[in-house]
Amino acid sequence: MKQQKLSGWILVIFIVFLLPALSLAQTQTTGIKFETGLNWEQVKAKAKAENKYIFIDCYATWCGPCKIMDAEVFPKKEVGEYFNAHFINVKVQIDRTVQDAAAVKAWYNDAKQLETTYEIHAFPSYLFFSSDGNAVHYVVGARDTKTFISRAKDALDPDKQYYSMMAHWSEHTTDSAYLYRAMNVAHDNYNERAAKVIGDAYLKNLKDPFSIDNLVAIRKTISSSNDPGFQIFVSNEEKINAIMKNPAATFFVIAPIIYSEDIKPQVLKTGIETNWKKLEGIVKVRYPKLAIWKATSIDSAFFSYFLASAEQAEDKEIGKIIGGVYLKYCNGTLTKSEIQLIVNCVTSSQDQGFQWLVKNRLKANKTIGKNYVETILSRVVVNEEVAPLFSNTSDPINYNALLTSLRRKFQYLDTTLRGAIDAKFMGQTISEIGDMTKQKSLSVTDWDSIVKKLAVRFPGYDYQFPLLVFQMNYYARKEKWPECERLTFLLLQKYGNKISPPLLNHLGWYFIFLHASDVNVIEETSKWMRLALIQYPKESAYVDTYANLLYKIGHVSEAIQWENRAIEMVSSSDPDKFISQFQNTLIKMKKGEPTWSQIN
Predict the structure, then answer these.
(1) Distance between CA atoms of 323 and 319, rounded to whole angstroms?
(2) Distance (Å, rounded) from C-alpha 418 to C-alpha 407?
(3) DSSP symbols for 414-437
(4) Is the peptide bond before 124 cis (omega within 30 degrees of 0)?
(5) What would the DSSP string read from start to end of 530-566?
(6) Residue 377: per-residue pLDDT
(7) Cα dihedral value 329, 356, 311, 317, nearest 10
(8) Do residues 341 and 307 touch, judged by C-beta distance below 8 A?
(9) What are 236-249's pLDDT values in tens digits?
(10) What angle do CA 345, 347, 350 make, to 5 degrees?
(11) Is 310 helix (H, G, I), strand (E, B) or coil?
(12) pLDDT range class, residue 466, cuts 50, 70, 90
């Protein structure tokens, strides 16, 4: 089955080069049905005639989350059933490219009007209109299936519609429940200005702030030390900590404010020469009632709060300075979160954090996981030592010489360094193959010519793996599934042990289970899926894929056993996740019907 997440560099490669083809294959039979060939006036006319609302997916061609929604959410059966029943659905491309089709160009003016009128600055953005074309609701950002449907349902509820609430919240200034909903709707859609104003009105109506729900809501209203909510937290620290069952709950809320108003301005002025003892005194004088000062002085705890605030604000340079001071006070065995703080302030091999991790890598790995530190350090090394080499696409890059040189220079990294280098070469190779296929002087099917160019460009590197991955995507776009089947078989035979389980599951599901017919290929894929289950025994999506592969080659009883196991796994962990699909698959297996004819 199609799993929900990929990780690390495989995710990047998979999204960029494989997801468009997989999305195409999946959306043919299920999911949201987007209108084509209609202009805005015709869309409104159709919505009025069918008494439906209008859903517009505002996307950009460069937007990664947009592609994920196209591949992971829009094609889902339950999403399609809800949206097709309640909305006229339209996709609108907001950016413009030289490759735009005529249908996209026909919407240029309307797309610009939507972008300007509704201030669309983030993607994906979703607009909802009533049947007569009035904007009622807005949602921004990629969402999981359940949340996406829930947000769409809000578009049909006047008490939850974004634009309706933003226009009329001032008519409900004595209704704390309404203000609470309006504040959350504004906050969820990154309208912090409205969330702040509505939040202040909400606080005026709040008789008892001291409940978990109300305290969580108050936190959303805080952006400066002058805010009423900030004063509530500062003046009731111990009481709030007890309610939240966290001795630092209050300080986690006010630390970002202290950071932005007191710490950051001083560090910007004085940099690494900051007098931290003096600064600590200033902060304690300004907030003398904070009980946390009783246990916190100039030590790692003091700096950890502000280092976290710097990272949250994405102030990398200030984070480096605070992180360097933080390291001076790190004593004994650190927790996972403390090690993560150090990791987050490492961007180069010259950083103090890099040197600290080198020195303490064995101790840190015992806390956070095997080879974790080496993996982080390897990424930094590759970004500094390898990435710049690819800037000139004509110079040969000798893989073996580079690997030997870096291993000699960074002996303590060993195998993790090779993995990071391989990942970089993998991504770069696929990118350059794509560029080669676009050259007018080179036929896109002239793979021999491409191979010769790769041999000159990357001497010593096994470029066959990325080449196979690219070719699979190339033929998937053309829906030449026999070629995808053949290439997947080659990939498994030669590089099966290099394919990550998440990528293997996708290949096994889309290219083999849904489209392959050769029993030998399906058998080979099922063997590798079985090995993936050894690494990920609790991943129900992998179990489902394995069961379906077994079923397709005639191992019915064994397939039923594995599908039952998949159902048991989701029933015990997340009753809503895949359960209906797994159950439908099991029914078809027991009836002897093809399961691949009903797969989403």
Answers:
(1) 6
(2) 8
(3) THHHHHHHHHHHHHHHHHHHHHHH
(4) yes
(5) HHHHHH-TT-HHHHHHHHHHHHHTT-HHHHHHHHHHH
(6) 93
(7) 100
(8) yes
(9) 988 999 999 988 88
(10) 100
(11) helix
(12) very high
